[in-house]
Design a protein that fits this description.
This protein has 258 residues and is α/β, with parallel strands linked by helices. The chain is 31% helix and 27% strand. It has seven helices and ten strands. The strands form two sheets. A six-stranded mixed β-sheet has the order 6-7-8-3-9-10, sandwiched between helices. Strands 2-1-4-5 form a four-stranded antiparallel β-sheet, with helices on one face. Helix 3 crosses helix 4 and helix 5 packs parallel to helix 6. It is globular. It binds adenosine-5'-triphosphate (ATP) and magnesium ion.
Length: 258
């Protein structure tokens, strides 16, 4: 496996040229939950296309279906109807094993609540996806150290999650999402539990992954201002439907050579 740092320049302005191949395509996707007599249309016929290498924010009020849609694209859940194609793979056609491989190799995910394993050190948390991918021990150690260095946590490598600040824990989660070199980063309110300065540090890292690794980013957020600062496209959901789709010029990169 190639070293992470082979293709990692330190930061922008070394940008990966944008491609126009579709990274994600959904066609009339629905996800209905049945609760007794009631049917909740959490995702209610969403068709969208996201280019590989893009940085897209998914906005909408609480209950609008953002996490439900993200979980479908992540392969954590299956749609009630409709299709989802990611990097050329039609998720509905994958076997359970192939879907597990997809989650392991194609997608990196971060959540509002970090979801680290408390009994494991930073290093053990980050190398876990490599263990699942059966990468050999020496390579695992090297790749996880590189990912940890990339998020600036080399000095905390043997700490447990409870010995870290919230921002540091989210950086560990980012290193874990990055370690398998996935094409797609799905982030569900990644700064939701952080103060704004710490959140900005996390967003700068995600932005850096997008620019220097060419990772497609799809990020859920409540905060329009955060989305406008970083995303190149804003997609709005309401009641499980796509209600607006707008290009955006991220304000935080103004002045940075693209
Ligand atoms: N497992 C489930 N079973 C039943 N209903 C669910 C389930 N998961 C989500 N829902 C419902 O689906 C709708 C969409 O939920 P979802 O979590 O996708 O919203 P969201 O936009 O992410 O909201 P928030 O901003 O609060 O995180 C909500 O009405 C929710 O109650
Ligand atoms: Mg949510």
């Amino acid at each position: 496996m190639a070293s992470l740092n082979d293709n990692l320049a330190p930061a922008a302005p070394t940008a990966v040229p944008p491609t126009t191949a579709p990274g994600i395509r959904t066609d009339n996707v629905t996800r209905h939950y049945t609760m007794g007599e009631a049917t909740i249309r959490a995702v209610d016929g969403i068709s969208l296309q996201i280019d590989a290498g893009d940085f897209v924010a998914l906005l909408g009020s609480s209950g609008s279906g953002k996490s439900s849609l993200l979980n479908l694209i992540a392969g954590l859940d299956r749609p009630t109807s409709g299709s989802i194609v990611v990097q050329g793979s039609d998720l509905a056609k994958l076997t359970r094993l192939e879907l597990a491989q997809y989650r392991l190799r194609t997608v990196g995910m971060v959540f509002q609540s970090f979801n680290l394993i408390p009994s494991m050190t930073v290093h053990e948390n980050v190398e876990l996806p490599l263990r699942f991918a059966e990468v050999d021990r020496r390579e695992r150690a090297k790749l996880s150290r590189e990912a940890i260095e990339r998020v600036g946590l080399a000095a905390r490598i043997d700490h447990k999650p409870t010995q870290l600040s919230g921002g540091e824990q989210q950086r560990v989660a980012l290193a874990r999402a990055l370690v398998n070199q996935p094409k797609l980063l799905l982030a569900d309110e990644p700064t939701g539990n952080l103060d704004s300065k710490t959140g900005t540090g996390i967003m700068d890292l995600i932005d850096n992954f997008n620019r220097t690794l060419g990772m497609t980013v799809l990020m859920v957020t409540h905060e329009r201002s955060l989305a406008e600062r970083y995303a190149r496209r804003l997609i709005f959901l309401a009641d499980g439907k796509l209600v607006a789709d707008e290009p955006n010029i991220p304000t935080h990169t103004q002045g940075v050579r693209q």
